[in-house]
Write a structure and sequence with these properties.
Helix 4 packs antiparallel against helix 12. It contains 15 helices and 2 strands. The protein has helices spanning 4-20, 27-51, 60-76, 82-107, 111-130, 141-148, 153-180, 188-209, 226-243, 245-255, 257-262, 267-293, 304-315, 326-345, 350-374; strands spanning 135-137, 295-297. The chain is mostly helical and 381 residues long. Strands 1-2 form a two-stranded antiparallel sheet. Helices cover 74% and strands 2% of the residues. It has a single domain (4-149, 224-374), classed as ABC transporter involved in vitamin B12 uptake, BtuC, CATH 1.10.3470.
Length: 381
């Protein structure tokens, strides 16, 4: 069923929250929802790479936290320029992911155990790096602008045109590639329908984001800078999963590791790379978090990883491996963010939020298990 249940859930949540609160569908909250969900969206997309292998990385959030702690210490205490410090932060994150992948793929330690150990240990590492105060303000204008600044109104329309052209070009290229290899293509009308939906939904979104949403004298309008960054990263990630050898091998290993090994796929290498990519994308989520709150603290990443797993599963990514796309994680992130946003507008207690998210996750996992059973697929022990 893919992301169909999650899409239906978005529709239901929109109706319910708008009835319960007249402030839900407003231009201000519309933009806030996109900005708030970008951090979770990036982390859930990161987790897709390991969930497709029927693995888990509970340390993805704190990996981002440690990487950003290294970044801010290099900038604040060591006086490094922010660009080399950011490169080091990403290298730290990738090194952590590669080590977790090595422990899982080569040593054979279950990913739950390895990532849980890192999840616990890196909470202490963050405090060690940040010192007794535990909080550093981010004073790099470029980093702060990611979540707090907007493109000029014309920039939003240019972004829409670029997305439309890129989508069409990729579709045509993919059809040509499939034709050369003798594979059947879907009717070209489907490509045009998807393109039309992109133009319509994108135009509505850009139009509303270009409307002044400020409550004061200084106008605030335009597409937030974080949106094109998120689109670019997700587009590259989708291309890698859908149209590269690594992506095909990743799905094969997640579907049946033994069959993949017998087919000549380097299973160990694929697993290590998947965990490395997961950590790399998790660090991007950490950059978003630091930009949004304007600081780096010792508690970053402790709770969001669970929401990231929930978002991926709710969106339609199978916990049993081999099935799911980054777009599913995007849809699931919107569902989780809508629940958080809507309940916040209704001034519900935080406990209610966790109860609702837990219920939605349980429902999604149940649907996935029943779908596999109905399809005659038996999960691995």
């Amino acid at each position: 069923m893919g992301s169909v249940p999650a899409l239906f859930g978005i529709l239901v949540l929109t109706v319910v929250f708008q009835i319960a609160s007249p402030f839900f569908i407003t231009k201000l909250n519309f933009v806030n929802l996109f900005v708030q969900s970008s951090e979770l969206m990036m982390l859930s997309a990161a987790l897709v790479f390991v969930i497709l292998l029927a693995e888990i990385d509970l340390a993805a959030g704190v990996t981002a936290g440690v990487s950003m702690a290294a970044f801010i210490v290099l900038v604040k205490s060591a006086g490094w320029p922010w660009i080399p410090a950011m490169i080091i932060a990403f290298l730290v994150g990738m090194a952590i992911g590669a080590f977790i992948g090595y422990m899982v793929a080569k040593i054979g330690v279950p990913s739950f155990v390895v990532s849980l150990a890192f999840f616990l240990g890196f909470q202490g590492m963050q405090l060690v790096l940040l010192g007794e105060g535990g909080v550093y303000r981010v004073e790099v204008p470029t980093v702060l602008a990611i979540m707090n600044k907007n493109l000029p109104p014309l920039g939003g329309w240019i972004l829409l045109v670029l997305c439309t052209v890129a989508s069409y070009a990729i579709s045509v290229w993919d059809r040509g590639r499939r034709s050369k290899t003798g594979l059947q293509n879907k009717p070209f009308a489907i490509v045009l329908i998807k393109l039309a939906l992109l133009v319509v939904m994108g135009s509505i979104s850009v139009y509303y984001m270009n409307i002044n949403r400020s409550q004061g004298a200084i106008p605030i309008k335009g597409v937030p800078i974080v949106i094109p960054i998120t689109i670019l990263v997700l587009t590259i990630g989708t291309f890698v999963l859908d149209r590269t050898r690594f992506g095909r091998h990743l799905y094969a290993v997640g579907g049946n590791p033994e069959a993949a090994r017998r087919a000549g796929i380097k299973v160990v290498q694929i697993r290590i790379i998947a965990f490395t990519v997961c950590s790399f994308l998790a660090v991007i989520s950490g950059v978003f978090h630091a930009s949004r709150i304007g600081s780096v603290d010792g508690s970053a990443g402790r709770t969001i990883v669970l929401s990231g797993v929930a978002a991926a599963v709710v969106g339609g990514v199978s916990l049993f491996g081999g099935r799911g796309r980054l777009s599913h994680a995007v849809v699931g992130s919107i569902v989780i963010s809508m629940i958080d946003n809507g309940l916040g507008l209704l001034q519900m207690k935080a406990g209610i939020n966790f109860l609702v998210q837990g219920g939605v996750l349980l429902l999604a996992a149940t649907i996935d298990a029943l779908a596999r059973r109905r399809g005659g697929v038996v999960s691995r022990a």
